[in-house]
Design a protein that fits this description.
The chain is mainly α and 127 residues long. Helices cover 54% and strands 8% of the residues. The chain has a domain of 68 residues: His-Me finger endonucleases (His-Me finger endonuclease fold, 3-Layer(aba) Sandwich). The N and C termini lie far apart (92 Å).
């Protein structure tokens, strides 16, 4: 968006909102209350620069909302990573269990063939 159009859109949105921030409803001013354009649906989530997706927000609210979005994105990626790790741990545990059972069965078969392991139901050898 070019600078002239940006200023025109920001002014039009601020006028449509009675000169107040779309979040805190404070009147626009200087510094932290300076009027900025806010994307209702963030560009990082597929939002566009279309006027229907824009609102006028004070600098303070716009900045803090951006930080909230960043924190939410980080939290989502951390949860996703934790879930992937949990799935990997379960898969690893299942694989280890299968391997242990296979080794156990193999060892039992070897011991039975060497007659070092009593077959099930053979009670005489245990006495």
């Amino acid at each position: 968006m070019n600078l002239a159009r940006l200023k025109k859109v920001r002014t039009a949105l601020a006028d449509a909102q009675d000169g107040r921030c779309c979040y805190c409803r404070r009147p626009f001013g200087d510094g932290a209350l300076a009027c900025t354009l806010e994307h209702r649906r963030p560009r990082m989530n597929g939002g566009t620069d279309d006027i229907a997706n824009l609102a006028a927000a004070c600098w303070h609210c716009n900045r803090n909302r951006g930080m909230q979005m960043h924190r939410a994105k980080l939290l989502k990626s951390q949860k996703s990573a934790a879930h992937a790790l949990a799935v990997a741990n379960v898969t690893l545990a299942k694989t280890a269990l299968i391997e242990a059972l296979t080794n156990y069965r193999s060892a039992r078969a070897t011991l039975a063939s060497m007659r070092l392991l009593n077959p099930p139901g053979d009670t005489d050898a245990r006495q």
